[in-house]
Specification:
Blueprint: H1 4-16, E1 21-26, E2 29-34, H2 38-41, E3 96-99, E4 104-107, E5 123-124, E6 129-135, E7 138-143, E8 148-153, E9 160-161, E10 166-172
Antiparallel strand pairs: 1-2, 3-10, 4-6, 4-9, 5-8, 6-7, 8-10
Length: about 170
């Protein structure tokens, strides 16, 4: 049987993700969560529920005509700067991807203020902890599966991650 705080945590995680339907069955207890379609949520409220704006009568006041104000000329647009060098595209197919084994919140370090488990350029070996994914108040250590060099961190610290989402690119040795 699920506890209410566990169900609330699941709802919060699903709400923050792009998942539209979620089903979990544990020991004969089953929870199914389905998000409403975005189209339905975007529909305006029926007129019955919309409050009418109050009508306030204002006395007419004779006012002197306002002086005409000429708008200031717009400053000339600066010449387009030289295009910034595009970030080098990395061919991700040549690298091993460490992926999230669950939906949760990604953390690069064991606690706030501590240094990250790994940085780009660090060497990893199988079973070396590279990050934590928090799911339902449980902190799950994610380990490297290969020996190699961390090339790129693909997720921001504190970001919600999906099941199977790539977290790191590793150049295998």
């Amino acid at each position: 049987m699920f506890k209410i705080h566990e169900i609330r945590e699941i709802i919060k995680l699903i709400d923050q993700s792009t998942i539209h339907e979620f089903e979990l069955e544990v020991d004969g207890s089953k929870v199914t969560i389905k998000k409403a379609n975005a189209e339905v949520a975007a529909m305006p409220a029926p007129a019955v529920f919309q409050a009418a704006a109050p009508v306030v009568a204002t006395p007419a006041v004779a006012a002197a005509p306002a002086p005409e104000v000429q708008p200031a000329p717009a400053p000339a647009a600066p010449a387009p700067a030289a295009a910034a060098p595009a970030e080098a595209k990395v061919d991700e197919s040549a690298f091993h991807k460490i992926v999230s084994p669950m939906v949760g919140t990604f953390y690069r370090s064991p606690e706030p203020g501590a240094s990250a488990y790994v940085q780009p350029g660090d060497q990893v070996v199988p079973n070396k902890v590279v990050c934590i994914v928090e799911a339902m108040k449980l902190f799950n250590e994610i380990e490297a599966e290969v020996t190699g060099e961390i090339v790129k961190v693909l997720v921001e610290d504190g970001q919600l991650v999906e099941y199977g989402q790539p977290l790191f690119l590793v150049k295998p040795e």
